[in-house]
Specification:
single chain, two-stranded antiparallel ribbon, 46% helix
Length: 123
C-alpha cells in the first residue's frame, strides 16, 4: 500500500520561500534553549494547512501510518521522533528524515532528555 503524501505547503512569513530557509533539503533548526518539540514544527508547517484544506487529523494519522492515539500523543509532545517515525514524517511531509531527527535531538538537548539515562560526555 502506498501512503499518500500530504499535499500542503509550508507557511513562511515575509518575502522568502521555504527554499531560502533550507540548505541541502534542511530547514534551519534553532539550537537555543527554546528548541520546540518536533510536533510544533509539524503542526505549524503542515497540520494547520492540512486542516485548512479539509484534511482531518484521522487522515493525517493514516498518511503517517500511525494510530490516532500515537498521533495525538505526538502532538502533545509525549512521543519522541525515532528513526522509523522520522522516515514516516519524511514521506508524508517531503522534509528529510534528518530534519525530524535533528529537531528531536535539539529538543532533547535543550530539555536534558537522554535515552536510557545516558548523558553526554562532553557538553
Amino acid at each position: 500500500m502506498t501512503r499518500e503524501r500530504l499535499d500542503v505547503d509550508a507557511i513562511i512569513l515575509g518575502n522568502k520561500s521555504i527554499d531560502d530557509y533550507s540548505e541541502g533539503g534542511f530547514i534551519d533548526v534553532p539550537t537555543s534553549k527554546q528548541s520546540p518539540h518536533p510536533s510544533q514544527y509539524f503542526r505549524e508547517l503542515f497540520l494547520t494547512r492540512a486542516n485548512a484544506k479539509g484534511i482531518e487529523n484521522k487522515k493525517v494519522a493514516e498518511c503517517l501510518d500511525i494510530s490516532e492515539k500515537h498521533f495525538y500523543m505526538f502532538l502533545k509532545g509525549k512521543v519522541s521522533v525515532t528513526m522509523s517515525f522520522a522516515q514516516k514524517l519524511a514521506v508524508a511531509t517531503g522534509l528529510n528524515y534528518e530534519f525530524w531527527l535533528r529537531t528531536q535531538y535539539h529538543y532533547d538537548k535543550a530539555n536534558n532528555i537522554y535515552k536510557n539515562n545516558a548523558k553526554p560526555i562532553f557538553s
